[in-house]
Amino acid sequence: MIFDSHAHYDSEQFDADRDELLGSILPQKGVCGIIQMSADFASLEQTVALCEKYDYVYGAVGIHPECAADLPENWLQKVESLLAHPKIVAVGEIGLDYYWEDACPRERQREVFLQQLELAEKHNLPVSIHDREAHGDMMDILRQYQPRGVVHCFSGSVEMARETIRLGLYIGLGGVVTFKNARHSVEVAAEIPLDRLLTETDAPYLAPVPFRGKRCDSTMIPYDAARIAEARGITAGEVLQAGCENACRLFGISPEAIAQK
Ligand code: NI
How far is the CA of 36 from the centre of ligand 1 (A)? Predict the structure, then answer.
């Protein structure tokens, strides 16, 4: 059983075969749950549509830091209005991205991130957090706001992972653990408690070795699981099972609902 806790199936890279993938190929290959992430304003509704179409797809609504520059005035009300939907289980993808700060200035990223953290707290929902080259500011915010949720595609040190865990958060690991230069990620994979690990892709991005550079989808997660398992001295099956159980716990999804899929 494969649970993909972070994917972008609304991406145009899936336009040609989205229905074939989500409707048959992924479930046939053992994908039992997906959290579809919003990124820009248009993807909020696209996320809801995907959740409504496929039983095993759940959604997160929120604005990615790269997409926070030019939002309609009512963006936050729009996000909030979708939180009542029964298949929307989180606020995401939200966070800070200092690598792409040309796309949106840091101050604006921070403002949009904090407004969404407050929204998640108000509705008692977990968050899916993006942190790229913003570790210092991110940890300050996490210490102050103490949200419930996951830092996805975790790229910090083992020390930062320990503090993230102490703050009660989960850690999402995907294709990057299979990359040759991913020493940090492998150390983190070996170190964190198994009950705080989420399996994920960030599809269509970050395909694992041997697919690096190609379009990623959720069926590639066993390659990440094998690398994580090797680092921990357990089996890939145990990693996949933990990924499934942990995602159900964090996002409030009934494991029975997933098992029947
Ligand atoms: Ni993402």
Answer: 9
Do 105 and 98 contact (CB within 8 A), yes or no? no
pLDDT at 204: 98
The rounded Å distance from CA 174 to ligand 1 centre is 11
Measured in angstroms, how far is the CA atom of residue 201 from the centroid of ligand 1?
A: 8
Contact yes or no for 138/130 (Cβ under 8 A): no
Domain count, the chain: 1
Task: Output phi, psi for 132, to 5 deg.
Answer: -120, 115
No. of helices (H) and no. of strands (E), the chain:
11, 8
Residue 181, classified by CB atoms within 10 Å of its CB into exposed (0-12), middle (13-18) or buried (19+), is exposed
Separation of CA 250 and ligand 1 centre (Å): 18
Is the pLDDT confidence value at 7 over 90?
A: yes
User: How close is the Cα of 153 to the center of ligand 1, in Å?
Assistant: 8
Residue with tokens 């229905």: 19
3-state class (DSSP) for residue 5: strand
User: 111-166 pLDDT, tens per residue?
Assistant: 999 999 999 999 999 999 999 999 999 999 999 999 999 999 999 999 999 999 99
Residue 243 has pLDDT above 70, yes or no: yes
State the residue range of the domain holding 12: 2-260
**Residue 248 pLDDT exceeds 80:** yes
- Calculate how far, in angstroms, residue 86's C-alpha sits from the geometric centre of ligand 1: 22
Q: Is the pLDDT of residue 9 over 80?
A: yes
Which sign, positive or negative, has the C-alpha torsion 227, 204, 257, 20? negative
CATH of the domain at 199: 3.20.20.140
